[in-house]
Amino acid sequence: MDMDIEPSEVGYRISDIKFFCTLSSVICFLAFFTGCDDAYTESPLQERVETLTIQQKQLESQLAQSNAENEQLTKQMHTLAGLPDEIKGENLYRLQNIEIGKYTGFFDKDKDGKKESLIVYIEPIDEQGDVIKATADVEVELWDLSKTDGSALLAKWPAVKPDQLKNLWFASMLKVNYRLTFDITDKVKSFDEPLTVKVTFTDYLSGKVFKKQKVINP
Q1: Is the distance from CB of 157 to CB of 180 less than 8 angstroms?
Q2: Of 132, 157, 154, 137, residue with least CA distance to 145
Q3: On the chain, which terminus has fewer CB atoms closer than 10 Å, C or N?
């Protein structure tokens, strides 16, 4: 039995085939695109994991160092606790005074005719009159005491901590002291008037605070 196919039916079938092919292509394209996207996002994720791993190792190293320092401090405390009473406290550390060295002043470090540096020499002195390498926080200020309009304080620098101070111990043929250097490029406009250096020296062992000042003449 022959079947008559209307032209319209053929058109419908061709349209269905085209639609099916188009749909298949879209699905394949989406699948390919999704796969590519996963490939691109995998690399930043891997980098992030590696970064976190490195940070974790760094934190573990810092923790181990802190534990070692705490253990050392604990041993020192036990040692001090076992010392006889006559050598504890202030008798263990004999800092009695500080002096600002006579060579404290302003200097032209690059020989261009302009003074850019303030060098402060500090001498911690024990009860025997000897200069000792005391552990301390040191604060330095620079004043122009001739000014009365609230602008007398020319500069105040962050405190020099013990771990920094120990590297500033300076020994010459005639003197031993701490030598601290500060930049004054934008802080001092004129050297025509006497300026005053003020030093606050906080001794770490005894807890005493020593204050000194010195006038630097033009």
Answers
A1: no
A2: 154
A3: N
Side chain identity at 163, as an amino acid letter? D
Residues 177/131, Cβ–Cβ less than 8 Å:
yes
* 192, two tokens: 């025509």
pLDDT of 13 above 70: no
State how far the Cα of 119 lies from the Cα of 131, in Å rounded to an integer.
18
What pLDDT does 11 receive?
Answer: 44
From the number of C-beta atoms within 10 Å of its C-beta (0-12, 13-18, 19+), residue 119 rates as: middle
Strand partners, 120: 180
Q: Is the pLDDT of residue 27 over 90?
A: no
* CA dist., res. 86 & res. 90, Å (int): 10
Residue 36 reports pLDDT greater than 90: no
pTM: 0.59
Sole residue written with tokens 């013990």: 162
Q: How far apart are CA 213 and CA 178, in angstroms?
A: 16
| Strands across the sheet containing 209-216 | 153-156, 136-143, 195-203, 209-216
210 closest CA partner among 178, 184, 172: 178
**Confidence grade of residue 216 (pLDDT, cut at 50, 70, 90):** very high
Burial of 6 (0-12, 13-18, 19+ CB in 10 A): exposed
Which of 100, 95, 105 lies closest to 175 in space, CA to CA?
100
- CA torsion through residues 134, 131, 97, 124, sign: negative
